[in-house]
Each structure stands twice: as C-alpha cells, then as structure tokens.
Amino acid sequence: MMKTIINYLFTFIIVILLQAYFPVITISGNPIKPDFFLLLLTYIAIIKGRFVAIIIGLSLGLLQDFITQSELLGFFAFTKSILGYLLGSLFEYKTIWRNNTKMLFIIFVYLIQYIIYIYIFNSGIDLLFFIEMKLVLINLVVNISFLWFINKYMFNSKLI
Fold first, then answer.
1. Distance from C-alpha of 128 to C-alpha of 118, rounded to nearest angstrom
2. How many Å apart are CA 57 and CA 38, to the nearest integer?
3. Residue whose C-alpha is closest to residue 107's, from 22, 42, 48, 47
4. What tens digit of pLDDT does each residue of 2-20 get?
5. Which DSSP letter does residue 152 get?
6. DSSP secondary-structure letter at 98?
C-alpha cells in the first residue's frame, strides 16, 4: 500500500515538472506542447474509473490553471473534470470495446478538448478557421503520439 502511494506521488511530481518545464513550440502565438496532465488523467481513468478520474481531473485542472495561465482561472479544472468523466468510460467498457475503438474514443475526447481550448483562447484573436483547426490537429497528434509511446514502451501495449 505504501509503495503504491509513493509510486503515485513520484509519478505526480514528474508529471508536474514535465508540464511546467517541457519546451513549448509557438505557432501563430499558440503554444504546442504535450498536455502531460491529460495523459496522466487518461491513465488514471483507464485504471481507476470515472469517479476517481473526475476528482483527479478537477485537481489536475486547478493545478494546470495555476501553472499555465491566470486570466481564465477554472477553465482547465472544468474541462479536465469533464474529460475525466468521458475517459472514465474506458474503464466501464474495457472488456467490451476493442483496442481500436478505445483509441478512437480517446482521439475523439482529445479532439473535443483541443477544439474548446483553441476556441476559448483565440476568441479575441482574428484567426482563420483553417489555422485554428491546424492548431487543434497539431496538438492532437502530439498528445496521441505521446500516449502511443507511453502505451507501447511503458505498458507493453497493455494500457489501451
């Protein structure tokens, strides 16, 4: 029990450091970088289920609000809670859904998150719809790539 708590705490600290200090690529004034909190939330939702994922999503979202931006406090807390609920469905249907279906569902959930993110943060900026969708797809590909890498090399393709 104590070893499990220490492992979770160590993972949480690593994720906080990665989220805070991972290099950012900026395209048209928009940051492109992996959302390590979203990746951790995906892992927790798959392993622990909806309720735990909602609570952790709220906590990670508040932490992300304080780390990354202060002008719209609560945005990440709200969206990460909803994402925790949606991703928690993977736990509920893990024996029913095939791996391809699970991955498509994760892509769909990530896509929703990035569309909302780009829409909210670029509401005062006059960007073309094409550029906004390109930013959404770039963020989606970056995070799905990290998720695939984590699943393949850290969990031997057993997570998803």
1. 12
2. 8
3. 42
4. 888 888 889 889 988 888 8
5. I
6. -
H-state helical runs in the chain:
2-21, 36-48, 50-68, 75-92, 99-121, 129-149
| Of the candidates 106, 114, 48, the residue with the CA atom closest to the CA atom of residue 79 | 114
pLDDT band at 93, cuts 50/70/90? Answer: confident
Q: Both tokens of residue 4?
A: 């499990």
For 119-150, letters b (16+ CB in 10 Å) and e give eebbeeeebeeeebebbbeebbebbbebbeeb
Q: Name residue 30's beta-bridge partners.
A: 27
Strand partners, 25: 32
- Vertex 13 angle, CA 9 and 15, to 5°: 115
Tell me which H or E stretch contains 26. Answer: strand 25-27
